[in-house]
Amino acid sequence: MDIMNNKLVLPLIVTNIFAGGCFVEAKPEFNSKAAWAELNTTVKSQYAYIDRANFDVIALIKEFELRALSAKNKKDFADIAQQFVRHFYDPHLNLGPYDENDFSVSPTGSDLWGLYQNEKFIIEDVKAQAAADSAGIRPGAEIITIDSLPVRAAVESVFGKSFEKLNTAQINYGLNVSLGGKRHKTRMLELKINNSTQSFNLAPSYQSINDLNNGPTLSYKKLNDIGYIRFNNALGNMKTVEAFKHALTELVDTKSLIIDLRNTPSGGNTGVAEPILGHFVKTKTPYQQYQVQEENTSYRNAQMQQAYVEPTKPHYNKPIVVLAGRWTGSMGEGMTIGFDAIGAKTVIGSEMADLLGGIKTVQLTHSNTWLEVGFERLFHMNNTYREDFVPHIKVTPADTGINGKDPALLMAQKYIKNNQHTWKF
């Protein structure tokens, strides 16, 4: 008998397992090294705002490379990668998919804006008609705990890093991510108000913004001889274009117009924004500039390009005033600087949401994740960065005053009353 012909030879790699009467493909082992290399390369080559960071990016990459390589599976890797990208304090730089334990995406999942000042965490603004506003929270309250965590610990959980190792921009970003809470979960806050501590149980931060999906894309009314149009977070909905046209037709006999962009946290697209801006120009007019970051080519070496609006009927030739604030995001920010460029009398409000650039989504195959990344760097027509724009008349808070009233709208009405006698049209 030939022994060699009867030898049992086992395969070196088992790719299938026989179970329950069928072959089941074995899951390949997670390759954390390949997953990190893919994420790292994407951020460095395609993120147009990487040089904006006011910290040592190389050191951050080295730190998180060690963490990422220790990931045992794709879920662990995604959690680590999310902490990594949050260090850039850019609400447009996001990594998913998300689960129920992930934070809400700011500023859409946000109804409070806080700041770290003099070693205290203070509510600076409250989003109008959202859960925190309905609960009676007002600017000036000191934040003591967020979901039972001391605020410093809550901020640390956003980054996976001790509070002392974070810079001021990161602390403020982490604070506001924390205030938004976990996705679709209620939030518990302890606030110090007039030297007494009060507890607030708030609805999930997405609830009020989701409720807008069942209502009109915008609201409008007359304030005596002033027209007022407020967008309801629908700059990505093409129905908004016709709704705005209808509103403008109804307000055509007003002597001036207030455009309220303070409720646009989810941004939108140019297909909606440009026809709206077109109602205020008589000829093809540039409203913003941009440079595109491509793989292996920095946006700094890219040609500066201009985005234009074409005239749209009906044309409104009366003075306009624009309102902006912490929940003016992305395309809302683009429209704000666009209105400023095409001739708005002024912009009133607070600093905006700073959602950086025009974004795209990159699929990361080694980790089964995706990365939203700003690959277009956006500019005002005066050549300044969009994120550096500050309203001409600063009103803080811009959404909800300490007395519960609307400070930016009141300022706009006052501004128009004091200046309309000098306007010619």
UniProtKB/TrEMBL annotation:
Magnesium among keywords: no
Q: Matching InterPro entries, A to Z? A: ClpP/crotonase-like_dom_sf (IPR029045), Tail-specific_protease (IPR005151)
What Pfam family does this protein match (any one)? Peptidase_S41
Q: Which GO terms describe its molecular function?
A: endopeptidase activity; serine-type peptidase activity
For this protein, the record's SUPFAM superfamilies field holds:
ClpP/crotonase
Whether Protease counts among this entry's keywords is yes
Signal sequence span is none
Tail specific protease domain: residues covered: 225-393
Under PROSITE patterns, the record lists: PROKAR_LIPOPROTEIN
Q: Which GO terms describe its biological process?
A: proteolysis; signal transduction
State the Gene3D superfamilies in the record.
2-enoyl-CoA Hydratase, Chain A, domain 1, 3.30.750.44
Alphabetical keyword list: Hydrolase, Protease
Alphabetical GO CC annotations of the entry are: outer membrane-bounded periplasmic space
Q: Which PANTHER family match?
A: CARBOXYL-TERMINAL-PROCESSING PEPTIDASE 3, CHLOROPLASTIC, TAIL-SPECIFIC PROTEASE
Which protein, by its recorded name, is this?
Carboxyl-terminal processing protease
Q: Which organism is it from?
A: Pseudoalteromonas denitrificans DSM 6059
